[in-house]
Amino acid sequence: MGTAAIGSLAFVALVVVLLPVSAMGAPTIYHTIRISAPYPGTIVTPSMSIATSGCGTASLVTAPFFHTGTGRGGFAGTAAGAVCASGLGGYGEASQSISVNVPFSAMSGHNRIVEKWSLDVSGGTTFNAAKCAVASGTSNTTYSYCSVYSSSSLAGYSYLYDATNGSFIASPTVAWAGLSNGTSSYQFCYAGNCSSYMTGGPGTFSFTGAVSWVFVANGLVSTHTYELETYFYGTEYAYVSAYGATLHHGHASAWLNAGTFGNGIRLNSITIT
Asked: What confidence tens digit (pLDDT) does each residue in 54-87 have?
């Protein structure tokens, strides 16, 4: 086999452990398969979108990507909401995702799969509720409000499928909680009574470390091909709005960096035992 052909294959380590001879006189053999980059045959599906209204903005700083040769991927985006000169608001929303389907073969008797990723990500929100002024001459029966909201989040999950017959096999034993930050302010008046609510608070989050998913799947056979489908999804949303009122100097913003300035998402290995 030539050098180019060798380079195109996934690195698979096969470890054979011989246990003590049983009473029947035959040793029991267990095989551990470890897959690491490159990941040939992997199907990568990136997705992204932005939406805005009024004076809101959104940007895809880094389009979603995943390199099967290195196992590294990621994305980044920002969003902002602001008050227009007319006093009306607007929103911005950016979302990004990557779906990574890695095929592999197991051996009859395998029943445990460990998928290991490493993440370097950060994100956060800013927020200013400002002043909500009800228009002069507003009737006591008129409803009016001012609302400011911002959020940034990163979610991830994985599933195990049988690619030979198309059946779902297992979810991981423990889900990943993800990362997020969000805050909102809501001020409203009706029939001369006014109230306000606020939840959360602006801030940032940062994570550098491992994310692992463990699957327990009995009945795997060597004649089938299996797939681990992993999905990472990021969203940045900022919203400023007023109705029957004017919001002075209100603004909100959100950002997520999971793919630029050294940040990213990397698949380290898949181990089948």
From this structure: 889 999 999 999 999 999 999 999 999 988 876 6
Please tell me the distance from the alpha carbon of residue 118 to that of residue 108, in angstroms, as a whole number: 29
CA distance 240 to 79: 12
- In the predicted structure, residue 198 carries a pLDDT above the cut 80: yes
3's enclosing H/E stretch is helix 3-7
b/e map 185-203, b = 16+ CB within 10 Å: bbbbbeeeeeeeeeebebe
SS3 104: strand
CA–CA gap between residue 191 and residue 76 (Å, rounded)? 44
Question: What token pair was written down for 4?
Answer: 């180019």
With b meaning 16 or more CB within 10 Å and e meaning fewer, what string describes 117-145?
bbbbbbbbbbbbbbebebeeeeeeebebb
Residue 54: name the closest of 83, 24, 13 by CA.
83
**Structural tokens at position 5:** 């052909």
Q: Report the C-alpha gap between 259 and 237 in whole angstroms.
A: 18
DSSP labels, 224-245: SEEEEEEEEEEEEEEEEEEESE
Q: Does position 24 have pLDDT exceeding 60, yes or no?
A: no
Rounded-to-integer distance, Cα 148 and Cα 265, Å: 31
Torsion of CA 268, 42, 63, 99, to 10 degrees: -90
For residue 239, what pLDDT is reported? 93
Reported pTM: 0.84
